[in-house]
Specification:
Helix content: 40-55%
Strand content: 5-15%
Low-confidence stretches: 1-57
Largest sheet: 7 strands, mixed
Order of helices and strands: EEHHEHEHHHHHHHHHHHHHEHEHEEHE
Shape: globular
Number of strands: 9
Strand order of the largest sheet: 5-4-3-6-7-9-8
Radius of gyration: 21 Å
Bound molecules: S-adenosylmethionine
Structural class: alpha/beta
């Protein structure tokens, strides 16, 4: 991969956005398509080299284009409530894209017979493994402190308590990241650092801390409408969106220009409309994703995997060996274990990073690994992906169900939610 040119985008007197420009991969002719997948500047190459994907037989398209040496997502940024509502995980064997693990643990808490978390980025595996050790070792409030959901000066102690339950590689990975542990492991990813930049440097251009607190305080729908119109939706707020989600800045942040070919009208207008929906129609006081984006912690408002009522359910499921994590691409895992059949699939938004043709091929393989009635859930952000007509007889689109769940999506930056069911 070629070196990355760094781009500086001046967003006014007080703020300069540092971005990494899209680069061409010489041997494939492809473009690196997403900021999250751009190579991190690793300080410990030897250690990270050990963390390369192990399932070499069948790679994912994105694996040919990206470096997987750092944490991209220190939390799952897809709404776990939508997943548990449509996948109906109770009693099912679930296959779940790992990311940082939260949504896979949410499926366990919802009664999945088993959860296989598959993840091709070894740094993400380290996030999942540390969560698993923490469920097994800590009490609920220590667990929340380690994650950064709540403030703490004892995160190093909680990590040391979990350390013995980690594999040697994962232990070395986290031993080398004492700063990330002290800050809370849920803030250690590149995506969370984008949010921190937004929170610390961009949001204050439009809103004071007091206004942010007021936004997050419980209100009726009518009060939220009024608050949004009179306080929140000011000129600077709208300006931030026009700048941040302009094609120029998103392109400079690494989104492949190809993605925009499907987007009608302004991306900024669309994301602003979705954000308005999340701030008005869905109660911000009960939105854990919004709490973290705006305050850098969850406080009392937690996603499913972190709720106290689910803590022991996850711990028991782990003790019953109903969870495994596999370092591989989904494509590689399905090829390696053709005998494994699943009843539910959390697919995150992995098709976003694949061509339509590769997405259709993978959907075909997923159907082959499904029991009749198996359910699939995934998100689109910019690239529209859903089952093609050629699979219509094997995969039923559950559009009404997906649309009504999408109305309640608290992680509001996606464009569409897809639910599909394998024919019986
Ligand atoms: C798809 S990303 C989530 C992206 C986030 N929702 C966004 O759009 O910015 C979540 C995780 O999926 C993993 N991933 C992506 N494609 C995969 C594949 N084909 N097999 C296994 N894991 C994959 C990535 O390594 C990442 O940790």
């Amino acid at each position: 991969m070629m070196d990355q040119p760094e781009t500086r985008i001046n967003l006014g007197e007080n703020f300069t956005l540092y971005a990494v420009a899209t680069v061409q991969v010489p041997d494939s002719g492809n473009f690196v398509s997403d900021a999250e997948y751009l190579p991190a500047r690793s300080q410990n190459l030897d250690l990270l080299r050990k963390f390369q994907p192990k399932c070499g037989m069948s790679h994912s398209e994105i694996q040919h284009r990206a470096d997987f040496s750092e944490i991209r997502y220190a939390q799952c940024w897809e709404d776990s409530q939508l997943l548990t509502a449509c996948l109906k995980p109770a009693g099912r064997d679930c296959l779940s894209i790992g990311s940082a693990g939260d949504n896979s643990f949410a499926l366990l808490a919802a009664g999945a017979a088993s959860v296989t978390a598959v993840e091709m980025n070894a740094a993400q595996i380290a996030c999942i493994e540390l969560r698993r050790a923490a469920y097994l070792t800590l009490d609920h409030s220590q667990f929340l402190e380690l994650l950064g959901s709540r403030s703490s000066i004892r995160r190093g102690d909680w990590y040391r308590a979990c350390r013995e339950k980690l594999s040697g590689e994962v232990r070395s990975f986290w031993d080398a990241r004492s700063g990330a542990i002290a800050d809370g492991i849920g803030s250690a990813g590149k995506f969370e650092r984008y949010f921190a930049t937004f929170r610390n440097y961009v949001l204050p251009l439009a809103h004071s801390k007091k206004e942010v607190q007021s936004l997050l305080t419980g209100k009726s729908l009518a009060e939220r409408e009024r608050f949004y119109q009179t306080i929140w939706d000011n000129r600077r707020w709208r300006w931030i969106f026009q700048i941040f989600f302009s094609r120029t800045v998103m392109g400079a942040l690494g989104r492949d220009p190809e993605f925009f070919k499907y987007v009608e009208g302004s991306v900024a207008d669309r994301i602003l409309a979705r954000t308005r929906h999340a701030l008005v129609k869905i109660d911000p006081a009960e939105n854990p994703y919004l709490h973290w984006i705006l305050t850098g912690a969850h406080g009392e408002v937690l996603p499913e995997a972190l709720k106290e009522k689910n803590f022991d359910l996850v711990r028991h499921a782990l003790l019953e060996n109903r969870f495994r994590v596999v370092e591989a691409s989904l494509e590689g895992l399905l090829a390696q274990e053709p005998e494994c059949i699943y009843g539910a699939f959390n697919l995150s938004d992995i098709f976003e990073y694949m061509s339509e043709e590769n997405s259709s091929n993978l959907l075909g393989k997923i159907i082959s690994a499904s029991q009749p009635g198996a359910r699939l859930a995934y998100w689109n952000m910019l690239a529209p992906r859903a089952r093609p007509e050629s699979l219509a007889d094997r995969l039923i689109s559950c559009n009404d169900e997906a649309e009504s769940l999408f109305e309640q999506d608290r992680a509001f930056f996606y464009n569409r939610f897809i639910v599909e069911e394998v024919s019986g």
